[in-house]
Design a protein that fits this description.
Blueprint: E1 3-7, H1 17-30, H2 37-43, H3 48-56, H4 65-77, H5 89-98, E2 101-106, H6 111-121, E3 127-131, H7 144-153, E4 160-164, H8 167-176, E5 179-183, H9 190-196, E6 200-202, H10 205-210, H11 216-221
Parallel strand pairs: 1-2, 1-4, 2-3, 4-5, 5-6
Helix pairs in contact: 1-2, 1-4, 8-9
C-alpha cells in the first residue's frame, strides 16, 4: 500500500501567506471594507468564498463576492513571477519521494496561481498529483481536499501524513483521519496549531527535512 505525503502549498511550501494578507486587505479596502490584517491572516488557508464569509459574515452583500475575489486575484497575480519557495521545500519533497512516499499537493489554489506555485516549488518531477480548489465541493477545514489528495495518492488515511501551516489545514487533516504535521512558516502560533490537531510542529520545511529521521514520516517507515 502506498504511503502518501500530502502537502498544503501556501505558507507551507511557498512563502505567500503575507502576500495574500496584503492583497486581500487591499481588495477589501477598495470595496469599502475596513478589515484588520490580523483577522485576514487568521483566515488565510480558507477558500475565497469561505474567507469572505469568515471576514464579512453571512449577512454581507454576496453580490460583492465575485468582485472581491477578482480584485484579490488581480493584485496577487502581480507576484506570480517571483513567488518565493520556503527554504528546503523542493529538497524535502525530493527526499520523501526518494524514500518511497507518493507526493500530492492539497491546495485551494487553481489555474495560473497553482502553476506559479508549482514553478516556485520546482519539484514537478516528484509531485504525483494535485487536489485543487477545482476538484472539491468544500474547502478546508472540511476534509474534502485531503480526501481527494488521498484518492490521487491511492492511499488509505492510515498511510498518509498531511503537512500544513494553518488551523484549517490541521482541522481538515484530522477530519480526514490522517496524521498531521504543522509548520510555523505561515505565521500561526504553535499552540493554535496543536489545538487544531497538529501531532508535530516544525519551524519550516528546512527544519522538517533536517529532522526527517526522527519525524512521523520515519516512524511510519519503521511501521510504528
Amino acid at each position: 500500500m502506498a504511503r502518501a505525503a500530502l502537502f498544503d502549498v501556501d505558507g507551507t511550501l511557498v512563502d505567500t501567506n503575507h502576500l495574500h494578507v496584503v492583497t486581500w486587505w487591499e481588495a477589501l479596502r477598495q470595496a469599502g471594507h475596513d478589515v484588520a490584517m490580523h483577522d485576514i491572516h487568521r483566515a488565510i488557508g480558507l477558500g475565497s468564498d469561505d474567507l469572505i464569509t469568515h471576514l464579512l459574515g453571512e449577512d454581507r452583500d454576496r453580490d460583492e463576492d465575485g468582485g472581491l475575489t477578482a480584485a484579490h486575484t488581480a493584485l496577487y497575480g502581480t507576484y506570480f513571477e517571483r513567488l518565493p519557495p520556503l527554504d528546503g521545500a523542493g529538497d524535502l519533497l525530493h527526499e520523501l519521494a526518494a524514500r518511497g512516499w507518493r507526493i500530492v499537493l492539497a491546495t485551494s489554489a487553481g489555474g495560473p496561481e497553482l502553476k506559479a506555485l508549482r514553478r516556485a516549488i520546482d519539484a514537478d518531477d516528484v509531485i504525483a498529483g494535485v487536489a485543487s480548489a477545482d476538484d472539491v465541493s468544500e474547502g478546508k477545514p472540511a476534509p474534502d481536499p485531503v480526501q481527494r489528495a488521498l484518492e490521487l495518492a491511492e492511499a488509505e488515511p492510515a498511510q498518509a501524513v498531511f503537512v500544513g501551516d494553518t488551523v484549517w489545514d490541521m482541522k481538515a487533516g484530522r477530519a480526514a483521519g490522517v496524521r498531521t504535521v504543522a509548520l510555523l512558516a505561515g505565521g500561526i502560533a504553535r499552540a493554535d496549531l496543536v489545538e487544531a490537531g497538529a501531532q508535530a510542529v516544525y519551524g519550516d520545511t528546512a527544519e522538517l527535512l533536517s529532522q526527517l529521521d526522527t519525524s512521523i514520516f520515519a516512524q511510519m517507515e519503521r511501521g510504528e
